[in-house]
Design a protein that fits this description.
It is globular, with a radius of gyration of 15 Å. By secondary structure, it is an all-alpha fold. The chain contains 5 helices and no strands. It has helices at residues 3-7, 9-12, 33-44, 49-67, 70-81. The termini are far apart.
Length: 95
């Protein structure tokens, strides 16, 4: 995690944790998936491979902190490691 974030006063307060009933979303949930993908790729366009890997690791930690539910995060990690399965149940864009 970014050291500045880790030392900030907000980081020391108890995180808001998603309800235990939260389930990993398997349906597309982005309002603009193409726009998100383009922004993600553009954010890495001037980075070398090592910088891009650090960027993606940092982004993962930022988003994990936003989610805050360890069980949900473990489920997402396990799903991402599955080599032959789709991460979503549909190829259609979210509404």
């Amino acid at each position: 995690m970014d050291r500045a974030l880790a030392r900030s006063p907000a980081a020391s307060t108890a995180p808001a944790v998603a309800p235990a009933s939260a389930a990993l979303k398997r349906e597309p949930n982005l309002q603009d998936p193409d726009g998100f993908y383009e922004h993600l790729i553009a954010a890495q366009s001037d980075l070398d491979e090592g910088q891009a890997q650090r960027f993606l690791a940092k982004l993962s930690l930022i988003l994990a902190n936003q989610i805050g539910d360890s069980a949900l995060l473990r489920e997402a990690i396990d799903l991402a490691r599955e080599p032959e399965t789709s991460t979503l149940t549909s190829n259609e864009s979210a509404p």
